[in-house]
Amino acid sequence: MPTSALLAERPVPRAARRVREDWVRLSEPTLDPPPFDAGMVAHLPEPARRYLTHAIAPGTPLWQSVQVSMVGRIGLGSWRRFSADQVVAPGRGYIWAAVARVLGVPVVGYDRLSGGSGEMRWRLLDLVPVADASGADVTRSAAGRLASEIVLVPTAFASVTWTAGGADTAVATSGRGAEQQRVELHLGADGHLVDLVMQRWGNPDGKPFALHPFGVSVDADRAADGVTTPSAVRAGWWHGTDRQDAGEFFRAEITRVEPR
Question: Which domain of life is it from (predicted)?
């Protein structure tokens, strides 16, 4: 186990300094995590067992959060390069802090779900407001994103309910009632993740907030620290429909996943 990596304290990203306390809280190390054993998931439907035993090596501590670094392109009118750091704690929240460039000028900010509320806050040169959004719709959309990111922290599998959606589909469900999030994980024969799809609350194309198809394609994965997670992804609205290509707005290479 990479003890030095687990004990190393990374600074809060500059883009997330406004929500420093939330970042630190979500990044708190898991205390005495038990080691993974296949018997822990023996009661789950076969697709869920297949995915989890592929994603988690025996003996891996069941960490409950991760810090992630990534680079890629995001659709902001046209494709813009970005670099980002993120903390993800399934069932609790996430903060995605990034720097993108528009005509060579940095746009700095974050998307988050923490303390029970969602927010998007972006600034040109970290000074001039570009986007500010919060409220019930943003929070509900952020909850959908958090639900989908269970694949970055499969060791937190107990934070969701697992069912089968078909022979090669594991379904991870979180939340309750109208706030319930249902994410379908489509799997290969060995349990590797092909893509995930869900109905996510949002307003793509400026349409009114509603449930719309959303998905993430996994082009590559990486095994490290006993966990296999996506390393190259594409995400967007209208996943699985004839509008999937037009709805894609995010392409990233995940360069670091550090368990906490």
Answer: Bacteria
Residue 29 lies in a domain: no
Q: Is residue 132 part of a domain?
A: yes
Measured over the CA atoms of residue 227, residue 120, residue 180 and residue 236, the dihedral's sign is negative
- The amino acid at residue 87 is V
Which range of residues forms the domain containing residue 77?
14-22+44-259
What does each C-alpha distance from 175 to 28, 110, 119, 182, 183 come to in angstroms?
23, 24, 19, 9, 12
225: in domain: yes
Q: Could you tell me if 165 and 187 are in contact, meaning their C-beta atoms sit under 8 angstroms apart? A: no
Cα gap 35→257, rounded to integer Å: 18
Domain with residue 231: its CATH number is 2.50.20
69-79 burial code (b ≥16 CB/10 A, e <16): bbebbbebeee
Question: With contact defined as beta carbons under 8 Å apart, do 33 and 226 qualify?
Answer: no
Q: Does a structural domain hold residue 253? A: yes
Q: In the numeric block, which tokens belong to residue 228?
A: 């296999």
DSSP string, 1-22: --HHHHH--PPPPGGGGGGHHH
| pLDDT tens, residue by residue, 14-64 | 999 999 999 999 999 999 999 999 999 999 999 999 999 999 999 999 999
pLDDT tens digits for 66-117? 999 999 999 988 999 999 999 999 999 999 999 998 888 999 999 999 999 9
Domain count for the chain, please give it. 1
